[in-house]
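#struct-help
A.M.: can someone run this one for me? Single chain, 892 residues.
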Amino acid sequence: MVSQKISECLSDRTGSYLIPLLWYTGESAEQVRKEMDAIRRAGISEFIFENRGGDWFCTEPWMRLFEEVLQYAAACRMRVWLLDDSHVNTGSANDSLKRPENAPFRQQCLRIELMDVVGPLSAGAAFLPEHTAAETILAIAAYRRDGRSGECTGDPVDLSGSIKDGLCMLDLPEGIWRIYFVMTADPARQGMFANYITMVSANSCRHLIDEVHEKIHDRFSAYFGTVFAGFFSDEPAFGNCDGQYGDDYAEHRMGQLRRLYPWSADMARLLAARCRMTEDELMLRLPALWDAVSPGDTALRLAYMDLITGLWRENYSCRLGDWCERHGVEYIGHVLEDEGAHMRTGWGCGHFFRAMAGQHMAGIDTVLGQTIPGITSMPHALNQGTQLKNTLFYQYTMPKLAVSLARHNPRMRGRSVCEIFGAYGWNAGLSFMRAILNFYLASGVNHYIPHAYSMCLPEVFRGDADEHRNGGGFTPPGYCMSYLAPAFYAGGFNPQYGIFCKLMRYAQRVCHLLAGGEHLADVAIYYNAEGDWVNQGAVTSLDEVCAALTRGGFDYDILPADTLLRDAEAENSRLRVGPASYSALIVPGSTVLPEKLLERFEVLAAQGVPLLFAGMMPERTEEPDSSAMASLPGNLYAVPVPALAERLGGICPGRLRISPAMPELRYFGMRGEDGEVCYFFCNEGRTDARFQVAATENAVLYDPWKNRLFRLAAEPEGIRLAVRPQELLVVIFNRDEPGLPLFRSGEKAMRELPLRYRISLREAGDAGAFRVIRENSAAVNLTVEENLTRFCGEIRYEAEFDWDGASAETLVIPECGDCAELWLNGSYCGAEIGPQCRFEIGGKLKPGRNTLLIRTADNPAYADRPADGSGVPCGRALPLSKHGFTGNVFIL
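D.P.: on it. Structure tokens below:
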């Protein structure tokens, strides 16, 4: 008998795992209710209400409207989450920090200016660097530069008290000296972040709660914990940057002279205590944050980053999470993880695991072309500027950050969540959506935030735009972007929405299987934030390590130093962290690693845990006189990243043995609460994946799209599987159900049907009859042949053909667009998602004359764009799917 969870999936009685964004820009309550009804049609029972700017968030008109939303949600048995600010990014505290009385809660940063002089200098002077009236020089320190390396060394000369009438008085001995001016940074240098809270101040973070969370609770406490589910934070940041999402947004690190670094009134005291020095000594040592100043620069940078990321965890993330728990709701969201931002400052959070520690799900997002199905191992371009995206991070690291955190943070209870589809454009049609859903599902992510429902119609469908968009409501002044494709329902003008609803139910089924249970990871990877923080010497890329292991057939969790130092232990030559057990620990190498971490590695290795340094061995710790390097066991060595999987295979083979090797096959294994072992397989490649899994007992295959079970027979070489490109299948091992149909990993020869069609179409929003555009036609490129460069709607293909009576099970449309539905002899054969649509037709084909009807649907990709052909503002990374289909269909 199949498990309870499988039975629930087969009957679509799953839990709730989808929480889409619903953008709000001033529409009436009536319009919001209509959009909520559209969400319910997709089988979704909760959503995030996201205010998109304006100056009315938490005012009385907004409060009245939100109460109507909650009341309707209660009537519909829905749950509502709320973006915890008036607009993205979270942190403006409802734009309250613009007011003078809230100035103490604003961000504060430090910056540096520097000059080189040649000594000796006696009774000399230098101009103070240019700075604004909003900037205060806190310290002036002079360091002697080494004649060979140019680095600053030794003890500083304190010039902080030598300022006189805009001059710095100089008395310096012989040598080349670098003078550092450490000063507060004018908030104007931070752009939008000038009026944001700062994570390094407890009072500042509390101000956000007072301005948003407390006010919502005061008004709607009766809904808390029932209809009102909780708060969602969207990309809070350290904000020590210019507020521009430029090419180096993910590169804010220590040791960069042009950077601003977060600061607060308490920072000098806290950091000095960590560095075992006085505050005055610390201020003179601060230039080491920006420049090479030895000895002690490594230790100072490590202590600084350790401090500010710990303050984020304590002041912001856990404070919000604790507040929500006390008030009966939950706290979810995500930071900007992109590229290396997850372990850096600026737009980033400094340390993914600490920044997310207080939340109740481990959140990430994939937007703006960051993941392109079929491109797995090389950087990719987005048709928007010349910047390339680091495919390895999005493909291999990011989903595992979320899944690993969810597993080891008790308040998350194994729940991870991914905001998905946002700003990909309408050209991210259903085939793309299913492909990236499958990729994240097969990585273990078990909740999703589809981005986004918007009540602002695509311009081409608006008519009387303002009236339709607002439903007669009030548009708040200054609202930010109100529409960003894909917008899913699009006021009923998206012909694909019916099949989109099927896709959402599919996602619910797979998430239901992923929820709960134990992840069967093979190995653990150290989250090498500390080596990256100090920005000295080389650092092995975490992304390259994750890619090498995945492509080599190993699954893994990523563990931060906090976990390894606090919770990890050796057990029977394995690494154990709570209930999780790993056969090896992989350490991405770096020139510098913290002393306490190296000492921990030494202990684990001595207790028999296989420990491999990827790429390089560390050369030193943050302490100049450390003995940790010398005490490392002699059997520890570095393994080149490309050789990691092969070396691991000789030491501790993975749990799943697959042949032949399948670099583009992603899998995720878990043991269910009932002890059942299942694996989720996703083919990320461009051709069919055909392989054997070592197994001696029969198994059951679950196809979550068809929502059907099949029997897998074990052969001497194992179980044979075939997974088509971008497809996801689930295998339940050691389970035999003789009454199920046998899964066929091979295919019979296909018979081509060179049909001629009557082709007709119907425009989006038109409920009338289809209009015939071609008679007795092959399935041609309609974009060219019928000039459908701006068409959005449905296309119908009708044909008749004779059949000789041979048995047949499947009809295939190899070159379809996004989706198709099939009727054979008037019998409905289902809906399929492209680019290859395969319909089960067993028992529906008859000898002699047969009738066939294929109906396809577009989304607004071709239609929703400027009339002058100038392109769309974002979402250009993907090609548009074809209208209908081309070529012949096949029967097998």
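A.M.: thanks! DSSP finds 18 helices and 45 strands in the chain.
D.P.: also worth noting: The first helix runs from residue 4 to 10.
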